[in-house]
Amino acid sequence: MKNKPMRRCIGCRNSKEKDQLLRVAFYQGKLTISPRGKGRGLYLCPNEECIKRAEQRGGVQQSLRRSVATSEKEKLFSELYREYGTKEESRSTTESHPKGAQIHTIEKKRRVSDED
Hints:
Helix content: 25-40%
CATH architecture: 2-Layer Sandwich
């Protein structure tokens, strides 16, 4: 019997089965919340407590191994809170599988310098 893949939540820092966690990935200049995908990723439990801890600890940049603009992090966490933010939603999301979640994309804003 094969062992199931384990991943560590950046909020609570507990290891859980991969299919019980949300995956946030940075790929081609975009932050994406999806169960699968390409690019450097991080994992979160689909509940308010872990989302808050991840936001407070600033683990997003460290896990993605790149700097992430404050506006991008704000968009990411507002989307996470909207989908998984309340305790009632968290319980039902944890019981049902997060792979059923829709894919959300946050496009990276490119800085354009004004050259005269």
